[in-house]
Amino acid sequence: xxxxxxxxxxxxxxxxxxxxxxxxxxxxxxxxxxxxxxxxxxxxxxxxxxxxxxxxxxxxxxxxxxxxxxxxxxxxxxxxxxxxxxxxxxxxxxxxxxxxxxxxxxxxxxxxxxxxxxxxxxxxxxxxxxxxxxxxxxxxxxxxxxxxxxxxxxxxxxxxxxxxxxxxxxxxxxxxxxxxxxxxxxxxxxxxxxxxxxxxxxxxxxxxxxxxxxxxxxxxxxxxxxxxxxxxxxxxxxxxxxxxxxxxxxxxxxxxxxxxxxxxxxxxxxxxxxxxxxxxxxxxxxxxxxxxxxxxxxxxxxxxxxxxxxxxxxxxxxxxxxxxxxx
Length: 327
Ligand code: 13P
Ligand code: SF4
Prior knowledge:
Layout (H helix, E strand, L loop, with lengths): L1 H12 L1 E6 L4 H4 L4 E3 L1 H10 L4 E5 L2 H10 L4 E3 L7 H4 L3 H13 L5 E6 L4 H9 L3 E3 L4 H9 L4 E5 L2 H10 L4 E3 L5 H6 L2 E3 L12 H10 L4 E4 L5 H4 L4 E2 L2 H9 L7 E4 L2 H7 L4 E3 L15 H12 L11 H17 L1
Helix pairs in contact: 1-15, 3-4, 7-16
The protein binds 1,3-dihydroxyacetonephosphate and iron/sulfur cluster (SF4).
């Protein structure tokens, strides 16, 4: 019933429905576009439709609005990724002060797309880049050409994982000693995704003992000790592709959000954890929210319209555009 009404409203409004893979099945089933953060930003900004209804977390709708300011972007729920919330503009400034107090005057910042527009703007102003999990390796490699120390934020796990893949020393603010920070080529902000922290090396050991030929696929937001043990590391889209290309009899345990994992394959697919890795903010959006936001828009009383202050949008776009050019 609700689904049919939503479809009708989308048609009436000529709106594009975009959903991240972590959204509930009921939402994903209705979406015109699903994808990882990079694909959603690319495909939604390239769409001819002017009205975009974004089912995801705040930074995703915000990034689209910055990349395609002519579009009207509305979100059924203004849910904020808890990792993005860990880093306010003042934290960025304070981190740079800490680095300066250690004698580190110049760093090249790279912010994961899971951050606010304000952070992206600060990074853009400082000559840095945005990256997503799908293009992080490429952006990181490019940034290394500058020969500067990298300041990676807000996800310490992604930062440490990238440093390790490039054979570089890394350190995390608040966690590592001043000497370790001074020696590191990659300095990370101390943010993390609570959902991906649930996956442990002991989970990998458990599955490998139980099924000796099992493959382990994880998202790069997982802890470095888990990523090191995995057979495959990739963005949500890359994980889906990896699993779908496996023969059905090949067992695989996947370390990412549960809605995605449950949708992957009818058999031989396991969640790499005994706890439930559910992203609370991604799961906030319901069919009722989607129906409500569309109905209000149709009745000329829109809410949850995404807007970004012009000065913030200008500099955030600089960092996002650089990422888009490189990916
Ligand atoms: P992807 O860009 O891989 O979809 O990741 C987004 C995210 O929030 C993962 O937790
Ligand atoms: Fe943010 Fe983690 Fe949820 Fe991804 S899974 S949206 S990083 S809280």
